């Protein structure tokens, strides 16, 4: 390369070493900027306190603000939804999780699980009733699939809905439900004599309760609940009419997992940035620790995995926008990016030393949050088996 050509190259950007921003359209950058600014104003100044207290105060107000941003159900079309691209939704998830996984979980469960289920499988009446106020954040939704004894094997769920005349009667329990205690509507999956069906359940229905789960050491700034249905009577039109079987909830989970592929890189970025800044200001042996080879090796490895993960997320987003994204590819992204995000957080903690465990810095908060992200929407083992089956053609689940 000639010296003149070298001089014409753009400068190296530590925040974007691969020039990934060149892949983004102006509208993509605008979405990212809007969500980043909102998170910086509304979440970051208070998130350490919320996390330490183990609560998310003002969640309904936050939901309405997210609705006004167009962040709720943003990749859905019509019914008050933004109709954003998959890449734009992913960028929003990245920025929200850079603030905290609990905030991104609020948005993911609202849009990619509860709203997505109604949008894809609901009747026109269900869509008209629920989606506009959910898109505005006026009604919060939750998604009931996991049970106390059945997580990775939803086909074995015990929650059951039986017909009683023209009504349905729903009985069972769901566990680890984000937004459950503050939701106005729950999408609940249950066994029926016809197979597994989804039900749109107003949470003020008699027999429905959602006790909050306390004493969490992860996702502390998030509402997590149990759902209890004790002979909840529902009208005939409460059932989602367009799907029967596990295809329904699993397609919703795939949409939510896609958001995690991006979101996990937000948590990783926050920890990397904290470590990079700390390495430039923390002095030992007479100079900043960023000047030592071992610290630079850590930072280089973190940057490589972080931006590889963002590239992977962008690639999957382009495939989703093109209608060619397969569930196995989402598993690929979720498995890789969450696993690498946790490693980036742990490495950042070592650079910060003892300060790494303090809530004055975001590192330990993100590290503990990611332990939940690693498990929900499919454990490491389940995604490994999804890929194993795709690679070999052999089913090792049973």
Largest sheet: 4 strands, antiparallel
How does the overall form come out from the CA principal axes? globular
CATH superfamily of the largest domain, by name, is Butyryl-CoA Dehydrogenase, subunit A, domain 3
- Annotated CATH topology of the largest domain: Butyryl-CoA Dehydrogenase, subunit A, domain 3
Strand order of the largest sheet: 4-5-9-8
> How many domains in all?
3
The CATH top-level class label of the largest domain: Mainly Alpha
Pattern of helices and strands: HHHHEEHHHEEEEEEEHEEHHHH
Question: Can you put this structure into words, describing what you see?
Answer:
The protein is globular, with a radius of gyration of 22 Å. The chain folds into three domains: 11-135, Orthogonal Bundle (Butyryl-Coa Dehydrogenase, subunit A, domain 1); 141-245, Butyryl-CoA Dehydrogenase, subunit A, domain 2 (Beta Barrel); 248-392, Butyryl-CoA Dehydrogenase, subunit A, domain 3 (Up-down Bundle), CATH 1.20.140.10. The mean pLDDT is 96. Strand 6 (185-192) and strand 7 (195-202) form a beta hairpin. The protein has twelve helices and eleven strands. With 398 residues, the protein is α+β, with helices and mostly antiparallel strands.
């Amino acid at each position: 390369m000639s010296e003149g050509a070298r001089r014409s190259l753009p400068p190296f950007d530590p925040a974007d070493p691969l020039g990934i921003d060149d892949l983004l359209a102006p509208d993509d950058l605008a979405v990212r900027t809007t969500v980043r600014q909102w998170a910086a104003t509304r979440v970051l100044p208070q998130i350490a306190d919320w996390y330490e207290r183990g609560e998310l105060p003002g969640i309904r107000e936050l939901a309405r603000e997210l609705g006004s941003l167009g962040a709720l159900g943003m990749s859905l079309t019509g019914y008050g939804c933004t109709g954003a691209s998959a890449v734009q939704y992913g960028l929003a998830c990245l920025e929200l999780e850079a603030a905290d996984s609990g905030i991104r979980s609020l948005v993911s469960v609202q849009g990619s699980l509860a709203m997505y289920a109604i949008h894809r499988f609901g009747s026109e009446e269900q869509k008209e009733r629920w989606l506009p106020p959910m898109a505005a954040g006026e009604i919060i939704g939750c998604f009931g699939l996991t049970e106390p004894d059945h997580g990775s094997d939803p086909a074995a769920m015990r929650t059951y809905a039986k017909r009683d005349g023209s009504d349905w009667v729903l009985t069972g329990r769901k566990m680890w439900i984000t937004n459950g205690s503050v939701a106005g509507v729950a999408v609940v999956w249950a066994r029926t004599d016809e197979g597994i069906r989804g039900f749109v359940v107003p949470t003020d229905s008699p027999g429905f309760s959602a006790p909050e789960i306390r004493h969490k050491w992860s996702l502390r700034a998030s509402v997590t609940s149990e759902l209890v249905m004790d002979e909840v009577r529902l009208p005939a039109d409460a059932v989602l009419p367009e799907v029967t079987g596990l295809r329904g909830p699993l397609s919703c989970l795939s949409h939510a997992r896609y958001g995690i592929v991006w979101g996990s890189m937000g948590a990783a970025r926050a920890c990397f940035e904290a470590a990079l800044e700390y390495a430039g200001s923390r002095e030992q042996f007479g100079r900043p620790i960023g000047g030592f080879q071992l610290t630079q090796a850590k930072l280089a490895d973190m940057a490589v995995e972080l931006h590889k993960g963002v590239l992977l997320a962008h690639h999957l987003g382009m495939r989703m926008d093109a209608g060619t994204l397969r569930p196995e590819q989402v598993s690929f992204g979720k498995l890789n990016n969450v696993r690498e995000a946790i490693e980036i957080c742990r490495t950042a903690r070592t650079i910060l030393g003892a300060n790494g465990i303090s809530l004055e810095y975001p590192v330990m908060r993100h590290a503990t949050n990611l332990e939940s992200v690693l498990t929900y929407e499919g454990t490491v083992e389940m995604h490994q088996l999804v890929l194993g089956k795709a690679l070999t053609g052999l089913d090792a689940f049973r």
